[in-house]
Amino acid sequence: MSMIHVTTTVNGDEVEFLCDPRETLLDVLRDRLSLTGAKEGCGTGDCGACSVTVDDRLVCSCLMLGAEAEGKSIGTIEGMADGEALHPLQEKFIEYAALQCGVCTPGVLVATEALLKKNPDPTETEVRYWLAGNLCRCTGYDKIIRAVLDTAADLRKAS
Amino acid sequence: MDYHTPGSFEDAAAIAAKAEGVTRFLAGGTDVLVQLRADMVTPDVLIDIKQIAGVKDIAREEGGWRIGAAVSGAEMTEHNELDQEWPGVVEAMDLIGSTQIQGRATLVGNLCNGSPAADSVPALVAAGASVSVVGKSGTRKMPVEDIPAGPGKTNLEKGDVVSAVHLPARGDNAGDAYLRFIPRTEMDIAVVGCAVNLRLDGGKVIEARVSLGAVAPTVLLVEDAAQAIVGTSLDEAALEALAAAASSACNPIDDKRGTIAFRTHVAGVLAKRAAKIAYERAGGAK
Hints:
- The structure holds 2 protein chains of 2 kinds.
- Chain A is α+β, with helices and mostly antiparallel strands.
- Chain A has helices spanning 25-32, 88-95, 105-118, 124-130, 142-158, and strands at 4-10, 13-19, 51-54, 57-60, 73-75.
- Chain A is globular, with a radius of gyration of 16 Å.
- Chain B is α+β, with helices and mostly antiparallel strands.
């Protein structure tokens, strides 16, 4: 089995890796690049726990091959905080206790950051539809939605 | 699995034509990778078409649109002009999956996956859309309704690859709409889907195309349903005739998501509702 050589950018850093053509981007992130923030929940694009951005577009990394990352710019949860300083969304999720087991949280945060970049003032309905592809089996979503809306309000005040 | 990234559709078609074993084209991958993961379809040859120039373009063409084979649902939704001219096509595509799926899923993938419940396909059929197919004897155009052959099957031959979707010029006083029934609000597969595309002249319908999804082995273009509203101002009698024609075209399966009787009835209901929306979008007052 011949391996494919891929050069890509992950969280702003240029990265090279070799991968089997069947490996997903999620496999590559976790097993080859040791970026284990993105989780595998379902592996079929239903749960959103593996959410990342590719050229600023929100996608499921389980539904993309590692080989397809060539020349792209990938954003993962590991790139969200600025060093030790958490992103306002991360701060707010802690404040609201908007998580229990935490498996869905990286995907929810990546998805939410993408939403707020596109729409800084979403309605509750817009947040709920945007996050429809991020399944949480613990919290029942309400704290997540409130944390997102409150962060959006803070960010609008700050800007 | 061999992974190819050809630089042209001719090269892609040539690779597919001489490939041995299971061959799949990769654009958004939202079906191909799921089937790979589930061991349903394990390609021996995977041909990624995204390195080909123009595959991500939505471009004007003869007054209509050419939508490249790798254009995602999100890119269609964000395209204001396309959305204004073909809101039914765009809303049908937008109903597929989550935000994450919208970032990758494509019209051509939805068509070539061959699901009878594909949301974008009835909207494309109602719109009178066609696709460019690149094969060993060159490029040909096929109407969208000629592509599906049955669940998971298409009329494309080995070595054929769809390079783009073509939407006709919208013209004046026209509108389209797509509605589907699902038992929840989001993230589900159509139990019935219905698209209506029509043109008005002074409040009267002068052209119509009605298409149904998920009620037969393939998408249906229902000529009788279109005839039921052409020449009318979409009055109650016309709507009832439309519903009856849509229901009588149904040949659905019974499954956990809907019975034959339910799907047949809902097809008529959705046809009426979609026709009213298309009529309003075409500038008709209701």
